[in-house]
Amino acid sequence: MTNAPVSPSLFQPARLGDLHLPNRLVMAPMTRNRAAADGTPEPIMATYYAQRATAGLIIAEASTPNAVGQTYPNITAIHSGKHVVGWRRVTEAVAASGGRMFLQLQHGGRVGHPGTSGLTPLAPSRVPLPDTIHTPTGPQPAVVPVAMTTAQIRTTIADFAAAARNAMDAGFAGVEVHAANGYLLHQFLARNTNHRTDGYGGEVAHRTRFVVEVVRAVADAIGPAHVGVRIAPGLTVNGIEEGDTEQIYPVLLDALGKVGPAYLHVVFADPDQPLFQDIRRRWTGTLIANPVLGWGSPLPPDGGRAAAERLLAAGADLIALGRPFLANPDLVERLRTGAAINQVKDHGLMYTGGTAGYTDYPTLATAAPAHRRVPEPTTP
Ligand SMILES: Cc1cc2nc3c(=O)[nH]c(=O)nc-3n(C[C@H](O)[C@H](O)[C@H](O)COP(=O)(O)O)c2cc1C
User: Fold this and answer.
1) CATH of the domain at 67
2) Active-site annotation, residues
3) Whether pTM exceeds 0.90
């Protein structure tokens, strides 16, 4: 007789810190550039997130903790009273629809431009992004960033802590520290963007230090039960080449484990990858996994359910999906019933203003009857 553990269903409730989640599906953070130029969330964002409130948890889009951390035009921010007021409208609308939200905190580091923020970006070292960056006047070549002084490192850590307090004031249940996808924290982790020779560069214990200090400061500010951390081991977006992925993440996870955040969130998690299996073994807390659905390709017809269930079977506790939630406000219901899913209708509308491609995706209740049909079971 085997005693293999039975993995939970996607539709079973879970606990996260002091939150009760009605299901294990998490809406992944997605920048949609619908904020005002100063980073204040627009009222339309309350509608968009409230439409998706049946997610077990929503992780709201990357929001900058200070002015110099701004990546692109019209992204959201959380470093002023105005930002707090704008976000409060969003969290109240989501709570009124029965949902719960964390807010992702993202400092762009070298992924930023004076044409957008008015400031020269800060980074671990003077290594520019090998690409153009979208600005209000269109794509511009990246500039050489300023290598952060120790004082600037301290100020940035304090800005993350203050932004986390602002997020709690705005009604979020917690914040996710963005250490993935090639932004500032990932730039500290990677060899090709961190050439520092002080205590924040060089050996792995030094390159992981900034991330750990940010997470610790945020946890001290709002309590570790309200903090998550997003990582993307080995991901090469935004010109990142970590160099020693297998060494970085064990050291980072052991240090983060001592801080004890509510969850770790792994981007493009692959249950067959030894690194993912190692992360699951090392991380004793809640693990959110964001499966690989094929970047830029159409969504799988099952909306990602099979990929999600494979990750649950491999030990993930919660599953984050991005584009499936973008195109399907009622994704949980569609996955539960096997109903057909909406595809992303126009990739050109992902990062633009307005309601088109944002709040106008149909639910099963509003769709034409043909789209509501549950697929017939296949007979052998
Ligand atoms: C429009 C869009 C915006 C995104 N913005 C963010 C972001 O703000 N922060 C982040 O960590 N990831 C961001 N991502 C990545 C998603 O969180 C997710 O990792 C990715 O879309 C893969 O998941 P999926 O295949 O389920 O969409 C974004 C993705 C998309 C499509």
Assistant:
1) 3.20.20.70
2) 183
3) yes
